[in-house]
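In the previous lecture we treated proteins in isolation. Real proteins rarely work alone, and many bind small molecules. This record shows how such a complex is specified: first the sequence, then the SMILES for zinc ion.
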Amino acid sequence: MIPREDLRAHASAILYRIGAAATVAEVDRLQDEALGESSPITAARRSLREATPDQKRALGAIVNEVTTTLADALAARRSVLAEEERIVRLAAERVDMTLPGYRPERGAAHLVMQVWDEIVDIFTGIGYTVAAGPEVETAYYNFDALNTPATHPARLESDTLYVDYGDDPEGVLLRTQTSPVQARWMESHQPPVHIIVPGRVYRRDAVDATHTPVFHQMEALAVGEDITFADLRGTLAYFMDQFFGKHTRQRFLPNFFPFTEPSAEMHVSCHRCDGSGCRTCGNRGWIELLGCGVVDPNVLEAAGYDAGRVSGWAFGVGIDRLAMIRHDIPELRFFFDADLRVLEQFR
Ligand SMILES: [Zn+2]
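The predicted 3D structure, ligand included, written as tokens:
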């Protein structure tokens, strides 16, 4: 049997250490030491099984007494320490709402998309509809429906990216212009037509300062009764006023495109030097901006229109080119490099 005095001594030593315990973890360790499997109190409790009734009475009372005393002391100390630890933890985790925060990075539309949206706004503002079509196109819509002869050099594999599709490898391609959407639109709509077609186009070009294999173009088409080249000039003058400012002047030089006749290239007076010559215009005072013309009657007939009754004009302009000219950007590839140092200047 374990002497009763030993149990009391054990209990008072542990009680003293409970009072001095500084953390909940320390109280947990003391709990194990005081009342755990290998503690003298547990040993004494076990020895009661073989004890005589007198011994049971005497020792049992002591065992219960010290067990209760220690358990109460452990619980009380644990509760005090837990509260202290909670206060310390809350203080450490406190968030100072007055500290300045981190401003999240905000994205912005790419400059090409900003210009795209701006042109769409200019034309929808005067009643045009935005039309769209497939980027993987047939040779019929990309060339034939637009009066492009079978021998035209633009059809060569050196200029056009063909798509290996079925048993007709010559017939499917990545559209080289947004013009096929004109043909598709006219097939399914009767005049009058007033559409713009912004979109991505593809050409087999090596990358240099002004060429990339993919770029952005916008086509405009107007068809109706009594539409002439003068209407085209008036519309382009309005477009230039809105995009570059009211001071710009335009001039038209003869050119050739398969789907317009007559065809012209439009030059615009340099918006930076107003025609006196600068780096942007290469000291010429004028910038070649776009191709345009009166829609060839063959194109109208191919779409099922009566070319004797209706006429129209069309122009096509590079969206990237407009952005480069207005913002003095020297290299087309800046638009495709995703270099934030460049793009962040246009947000
Ligand atoms: Zn200039």
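Summary for your notes: The chain has two domains: 4-93, 111-346. The domain at 111-346 is CATH 3.30.930.10 (BirA Bifunctional Protein; domain 2).
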